[in-house]
Amino acid sequence: MKKRILLLITLCMVSFAFAQETPETKTTPAPAPATIINVESLPHYVELKKRINLTGVVMTADKEPEFPGGMALFRRKFAENMEVIYAKGKKIDTRVYFIVEKNGYINNIAAISNNKDHAKAAEAALKKMLVRWKPALVADKPVRFLYSFPLSLQKY
For the chain, which residues make up each domain, given as ranges? Predict the structure, then answer.
């Protein structure tokens, strides 16, 4: 008898739990990631403005500049040219900026870092890469394009 009562109570509770209505929730799509359109919104703008000529530079284009052989080859060549820095700190964050000119050559190289030696090594590695890029295009006309990429070094 006790088993039947216990079974009846359990069935009632289960049916009660599944009978609950859930309110409709509207899901809003996640906002698109922010893209930097103007140079003034860069995190290192003040220091960058002192070190390189930002006149007429764009950061978005109809067609971005292309390294001959693609970006994977660019990264590999950059890594080959980069001098290994032995740092005392745990982590080094560096951001490398350079301008791909209208003629396709790299100019105005700057690396901003929390470690001066790493910044100098990054600038030197990029200066060794004297390769002509396909320039960025806006309305089918070549423009000066500010390119940037992060580098980080972490001790394990």
Answer: 37-154
As a dihedral over the C-alpha atoms of residue 125, residue 39, residue 136, residue 71, rounded to 10 degrees, the angle is 40
What is the per-residue pLDDT across 22-58, written as a single tens digit (0 to 9) for each?
A: 555 444 444 333 344 677 767 777 888 888 888 888 8
Q: Where are the alpha helices (DSSP H) in 19-152?
A: 45-51, 71-81, 116-127
User: Strands 57-58 and 141-154, how do they pair?
Assistant: parallel
Distances (CA, A) of 74 to 33, 38, 45, 141, 144: 25, 25, 25, 24, 19
Tokens of 39: 């140079």
Residue whose entry in the numeric block shows the structure tokens 């359990």? 10
Both tokens of 47, joined, read 């220091």
Whether this prediction's pTM lies above 0.85 is answered by no
Distance between CA atoms of residues 111 and 123, nearest Å = 6
Residues 6+ apart with CB under 8 A from 20: none
- Paired tokens of 54: 């930002």
pLDDT above 50 (res 122): yes
